[in-house]
Design goal:
By secondary structure, the protein is an alpha+beta fold. The chain has 16 helices and 17 strands. α1 crosses α5 and α9 packs across α11. The radius of gyration is 30 Å and the shape is elongated. The termini are far apart.
């Protein structure tokens, strides 16, 4: 028996607009229930929607990044639902003329190769409200989320296994964040996944069976995507073994939920087909049009895609994939890094400082590096101060932290004026001593106070390395960290070489 999983994904990405898709209500996570609603998103009679232009632009950018064909004319459709969290009893979506279609998204695989997953469509639609059950003996409905702009991305069933699905979701999150079209914070429900899973089973006599398609609804973590798909594949194979009539032809499509505690899928209902939604063109909204000149401008805004840029960073700047994950967390941070490179910063030192210094400061305030307010001049200066030995690598953190404090306390108009990190280093007493006479005095004092270590370094090969390190540490201690460790080390080695001869 040969088993081949067939996996596609439907992904809802909340777009990073300030207001909803068809009205001016503000988007705010965890606001008091039903405080950001109006006649439009409540579906009151006579209320007329107006399309959010920025949401449309974000959808076009996302479609281009997914290598899709972008429609010159796209329209809106009503998709009928009768759920408590859908106040209009229909969802405004796109059916036969989506904003983007026929694309593909390339992802890395575990063996280092690249694999392209087909994209059927990416279309705009509004989100529903939220049913609240927890701790209640009844259901409450919060409509703050109703009307939130979503980009729904539907893949071809090209995904081969749960690990590929996991990677696709991770890389897609990176992409939409890099483009700036979504924060894609899964804890806030800004990115939700719905795998469609079934299995092709070929028995010993060559007969192929296909199990029913299971759509696993509303997953909000990468882990649950992988775990639910792995479980569902096993469940479907076992169900077919028990009953060879467990096939798509005889059972159709089904909706399942994922129980994260028990790590099992749970049957919900049979899945609707397109005709069940009774689509028809939305009469209250005009079609959205895009001409060639506008589309060309959008292509320029997309620019170099993350996977291509990552490959270039690794090749040109000697980064690791982990370095790229931090430095390319958002486009502005990656642009800041490249601006510092263009200004002459040492790539090795700069990468270390982005990962270990600037990212540490940014993470403490839950920001990206670019959001801290630093600019390329400051980043370049800090790398140069370490490269020329003015300050130590460890002192760079203190200088960077003080610079960020200065930015936060300065008047907005003066926040970036006359950036001088060397002055900050001097003020903090972190400038390394490079005067040879002073260094020689510290080296001689360290040797005089630790004659046994000096003797071990010159006469005992087994202890020489450790003894030299100890003496270097003593020099730094005597200098209160002000000695240039590189010059002090060279001077110690000169002393040891002279003594050996």
């Amino acid at each position: 028996m040969t088993i081949r999983p067939i996996i596609g994904l439907e992904i809802h990405v909340q777009l990073a607009t300030r207001t909803k898709l068809f009205c001016g209500c503000r988007l705010e996570f965890a606001a008091a229930p039903n405080t950001h609603v109006c006649p439009v998103c409540l579906g009151l009679p006579g209320a007329l929607p107006v399309m959010n232009r920025q949401a449309f632009e974000f959808a076009v950018l996302g479609g281009l990044a997914l290598e899709c064909d972008i429609a010159g004319v796209t329209k809106w459709d009503r998709k009928s639902y009768y759920y408590p969290d859908m106040p209009k009893n229909f969802q405004t979506s796109q059916y036969d003329l989506p904003v983007a279609s026929k694309g593909g998204f390339t992802i890395p695989t575990v063996n280092g190769a690249l694999r392209r997953i087909g994209i059927i469509r990416a279309h705009l639609e509004e989100d529903a409200g939220k049913n609240l059950h927890e701790g209640l003996n009844h259901t409450r409905v919060d409509l703050n989320r109703a009307g939130t702009p979503l980009l729904e991305i539907v893949t071809e069933p090209d995904i081969a296994n749960a690990d590929e699905a996991y990677t696709f979701c991770v890389e897609l999150q990176k992409l939409v964040r890099f483009l700036g079209i979504s924060d894609a914070d899964m804890q806030k429900g800004q990115m939700r996944f719905e795998p469609n899973v079934n299995v092709s089973i070929t028995d010993d006599d060559g007969t192929e069976y296909r199990t029913p398609i299971s759509e696993i609804k509303n997953l909000n973590s990468f882990r649950s995507v992988r775990s639910s798909i792995e479980y569902e594949i096993r469940r479907q194979v076992d169900a077919w073994r028990d009953d060879h009539d467990y096939t798509l032809e005889k059972r159709g499509k089904q909706n399942f939920g994922w129980n994260d505690q028990l790590e099992v899928t749970e049957f919900q209902r049979g899945k609707e087909e397109s005709h069940d939604y009774r689509y028809f063109a939305e009469p209250d909204l005009v079609p959205a049009k895009l001409d060639a000149a506008e589309l060309s401008g959008f292509r320029a805004r997309v620019g170099e895609l993350p996977l291509v840029r990552q490959a270039r960073f690794i090749k040109s700047f000697g980064m690791t994939e982990k370095d790229c994950e931090i430095i390319m967390a958002d486009r502005a941070t990656a642009d800041l890094y490249e601006a510092a490179i263009d200004a002459g910063a040492d790539t090795k030192i700069l990468t270390k400082q982005f990962v270990g210094v600037w990212n540490h400061i940014a993470s403490a305030s839950q920001q990206s590096v670019a959001q801290t307010g630093i600019d390329a001049a400051a980043v370049t200066q800090l790398a140069q101060l370490v490269a020329d030995g003015t300050i130590s690598a460890s002192a760079a953190s203190q200088v960077a932290e003080q610079h960020c404090k200065n930015i936060n306390t300065a008047e907005p108009s003066n926040a970036r004026d006359s950036v001088d990190l060397a002055a900050i280093a001097t003020e903090l007493g972190l400038v390394q001593e490079r005067d040879e006479n002073q260094l020689a005095a510290w080296v001689d004092a360290a040797i005089a106070a630790n004659q046994q270590a000096f003797d071990d370094a010159t006469t005992n090969p087994k202890k020489a390395k450790a003894a030299l390190g100890f003496l270097r540490g003593q020099v730094m201690k005597l200098s209160q960290g002000k000695a240039d460790p590189k010059l002090a080390g060279q001077m110690l080695e000169d002393r040891l070489n002279k003594s050996s001869t």
